[in-house]
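Deliverable D4.2, example record:
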Amino acid sequence: MIANADRFPEVGRTWYTQGFERVLATLATCFQGLADRELLRLDDPLLAANHFVGLLLWIPVNKAMFSGDYRAISKTERERYAQAAVCAFLAGYGPPGLSASSRPSLRKRRTG
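Output generated by the structure prediction step:
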């Protein structure tokens, strides 16, 4: 999509509005519900959704785009990125009483 967006802008716009933008809107609705229950602090749920998705996708997407290596990343690496994204998101958007000890751990899990 990204590589051909300038040649086929209608296709890129459609993909974005019918796919990615809908996912962001759904996340924003979920985040607003969590904020209503005082589980998140946010003023703009759509911006928070964009931040969260950015935290999740930044590393793997940029690795693929800039290296040309489109092989799937390992399950361990995906879990590590996801856990780090959640921790960073909660550091910025979590409730005021969320202590560091109650946040998910970023320690690397060792498997036998």
